[in-house]
Design goal:
Elements: E1 4-10, E2 13-18, E3 22-27, E4 32-38, E5 42-47, E6 50-54, H1 58-73, E7 78-83, H2 88-93, E8 101-106, H3 109-118, H4 120-123, E9 132-136, H5 139-145, E10 150-156, H6 170-178, E11 180-189, H7 197-207, E12 213-220, E13 228-235, H8 245-253, H9 264-269, H10 275-278
């Protein structure tokens, strides 16, 4: 590697991180994996030259994709995570005492193994929790074939290229809807609206074919360049999204863990979308 890692996700805009020590670089059966150190963000994991997570700002992404649906649901016992090989998502989900089982389906065993070795702070021991069931397989195939039902499904995917492309299709969303309990919630990674507007529009139209209530919520994650990141929200009733602030506050007050970004007010406020994002919902 040179002294700079240049992310080339977009043809007209690059992002550069100065590289310190290169910890790992290799080709898996699915993608190129790089882990390196950066003076500001700590250890950085990239797949196919696109940054996936960093020690410095991962807490925003992982807290919002877990605590928003789990606190909105209020009693999620069975959670499915598709993707999330770095372990940050299971770390946050397992902080909720009502969760009895987490099934994590990750396509790339090497991402899991190298994250355990070089990014242990992100999973923080979550891979050894007895409530975790780790399955190494294609997430789309799993959701199509399983007969289990889940209270919350978290789609912690890459962008819709390469292995992650199939996780943005109508067929996949329909299978997710089938696997939800009556009050279940699906949340998805939906890119940065300012730079990936078509992704929001496509997800909006595809999700609405399988779910009654579809919306998006947002959070700023520094290394996901271009402004707010959007997360898709899908459910088969509107109760969870229209939950009162006092209910969220009570649920959050009854847990023993602390957060760095998520609060009940942030929870509600994240669903207020900027006008340019609203214009993409067509």
């Amino acid at each position: 590697m040179t002294n700079w890692f240049i992310e080339t996700l977009h043809p007209w805009w690059n992002q550069g991180l100065r590289t310190g020590k290169l910890l790992y670089r290799g080709e898996t059966n699915h993608q190129e994996l790089i882990i390196f150190e950066n003076a500001k963000f700590g250890r950085v994991l990239a797949l196919d030259n696109v940054i996936q997570t960093t020690e410095g700002d991962e807490f925003i992404y992982h807290e919002m994709m877990t605590h928003v649906p789990l606190n909105a649901h209020g009693n999620a016992k069975r959670v499915l995570i598709i993707g999330g090989g770095d372990g940050g998502m299971i770390r946050e989900v397992l902080k909720h005492p009502e969760v009895e089982q987490v099934t994590m389906v990750e396509i790339d065993r090497v991402v899991v193994d190298m994250s355990k070795v070089y990014l242990p702070s992100i999973s923080s021991g979550a891979f050894t929790d007895s409530r975790l069931e780790l399955i190494i397989t294609n997430g789309a195939s799993y959701i199509t074939e399983t007969r289990r039902r889940f209270d919350v499904i978290i789609i912690d995917s890459t962008d819709p290229v390469g292995p992650g492309e199939v996780l943005f299709t109508e067929e996949f969303y329909n299978a997710c809807s089938r696997c939800l309990t009556d009050d279940g919630i699906v949340v998805t990674q939906n890119g940065v609206p300012y730079l990936q507007g078509s992704l929001i529009t496509d997800s909006w139209n595809r999700l609405r074919k399988s779910f009654i209530d579809v919306w998006f919520f947002v959070a700023p994650i520094p290394t996901y360049q271009g402004g707010f990141m959007a997360f898709g929200w899908a459910a088969n009733n509107k109760r969870a999204r229209n939950i009162k602030l006092s209910t969220i506050e009570n649920r959050f007050a009854n847990v023993s863990f602390k957060t760095q970004y998520y609060t009940p007010l942030i929870h509600l406020g994240s669903f207020a979308l900027p006008k340019f994002v609203l214009d993409l919902l067509q």
